[in-house]
Design the sequence.
């Protein structure tokens, strides 16, 4: 009820499939190195890439969210906690073209070097729809 953010992903998905991108697609919402963050009552739709990507954050609540992307949209994960701790993800609806939730601890050797695993993440009361490939 508090609004929505539209990433207009169709533009990016078309370029991605046609191999016309010279750089990566960005996530729709990315917050980094933050604490005591609340995401609530927002619709996030048609992200170019991952939809909600908290990175190295602590004490994050994600509640009453609606996250939408077409099933054929590439790599449009719903929520990707990355090197985060003390997080609650609850009471939300996620319908996307890839993973509903993908808990990460960095990317390849960068994640190993950074050395911050995700931990203490509570996930409850979600409806998740995704494309099985």
Sequence:
């Amino acid at each position: 009820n508090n609004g929505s953010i539209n990433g207009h992903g169709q533009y990016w998905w078309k370029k991605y499939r046609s191999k016309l991108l010279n750089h990566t697609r960005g996530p729709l919402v990315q917050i980094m190195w933050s604490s005591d963050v609340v995401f609530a009552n927002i619709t996030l739709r048609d992200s170019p890439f991952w939809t909600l990507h908290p990175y190295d954050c602590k004490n994050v609540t994600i509640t009453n969210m609606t996250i939408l992307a077409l099933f054929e949209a590439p790599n449009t994960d719903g929520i990707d906690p990355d090197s985060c701790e003390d997080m609650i993800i609850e009471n939300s609806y996620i319908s996307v073209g890839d993973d509903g939730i993908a808990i990460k601890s960095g990317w390849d050797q960068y994640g190993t070097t950074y050395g911050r695993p995700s931990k203490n993440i509570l996930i409850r009361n979600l409806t998740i729809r995704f494309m099985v490939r």
In short: The domain at 4-130 is CATH 2.160.20.10 (Pectate Lyase C-like).
